[in-house]
Amino acid sequence: GRSRERAGRSRERAGRSRERAAFRLALIQLHVSAVKSDNLQRACGLVREASAKGAKLVALPECFNSPYGTQYFKEYAEKIPGESTQKLSAVAKECSIYLIGGSIPEEDGGKLYNTCTVFGPDGALLAKHRKVHLFDINVPGKIQFRESETLSPGNSFSMFDTPYCKVGLGICYDMRFAEMAQIYGQKGCQLLIYPGAFNMTTGPAHWELLQRGRAVDNQLYVATVSPARDEKASYVAWGHSTVVNPWGEVIAKAGAEETVVYTDIDLKKLAEIRQQIPILSQKRCDLYGVEMKK
């Protein structure tokens, strides 16, 4: 009788760990307007919809509560906690999910940051990532942009734990920096989430390429969440929120319009890929290394 009971218990445990080895992720490609209250209301509505469809982790896009542009950051900036993050905390708790709150312009001590907050199923703040690499670029004749005109950079890595896996955060331009993703991989992250708004020049050229590169180099899942494309906006986002698996395959991808992208993240597949091509244990740490300095 006891051994039957034990077998039943271990079957139950195996069932539980199998269930934890896969979970549903939802990316909300939100159409962002100039009216903050509308953006918040629609974002929370889509979070509820995603949760009703079984998503355990839900992510919003970069700058989801305000138009994207140096001329808007100051006007839309908030303290944290503040109006936007309080709503995110409440809806995460109501739906009992992990919510990656895209990013918002944050004001703190007279400085502005591009900041992503993460809330747990109890509504608690689990992580706050300030964009580390500021988007200062100049492609003559195509696009010029300087975030550093108004924003200050964050100075830390941001990770959080879930019952499924550890997650690493970056915002948009952070994705171009392979070292950051590598350190997240070293620290045990199996999923990286980048809320981001690439544009009509960099989007078609690099958006998917960068995600596939980060995923295959580190053998982990990469997800990006963009705002929907608005041709009338001063900064036109590329859209195409995407999920890439550790084999470098695109397993889910949006178009340009407002939508919610769902995908099941399979951590068993991640473990299999790492076993088949064991690059992480084959690195020559006697020859090279990438280290986290703070």
From TrEMBL:
Keyword annotations: Hydrolase
CC terms in the record's Gene Ontology section: centrosome; cytosol; mitochondrion
Pfam families the record matches: CN_hydrolase
Enzyme's top EC category: hydrolase
Record-level Gene Ontology MF annotations: omega-amidase activity
Residues making up the signal peptide according to the UniProt record: none
Domain of life: Eukaryota
UniProt cross-references to InterPro entries, sorted A to Z: C-N_Hydrolase, C-N_Hydrolase_sf, Nit1/2_C-N_Hydrolase
The enzyme's E.C. designation: 3.5.1.3
Catalysed reaction, written as an equation: 2-oxoglutaramate + H2O = 2-oxoglutarate + NH4(+); 2-oxosuccinamate + H2O = oxaloacetate + NH4(+)
Any single biological process term in GO: glutamine metabolic process
Keyword Membrane listed: no
Segments forming domain CN hydrolase: 23-267
The family this protein is said to belong to: Belongs to the carbon-nitrogen hydrolase superfamily. NIT1/NIT2 family.
Name of this protein: omega-amidase
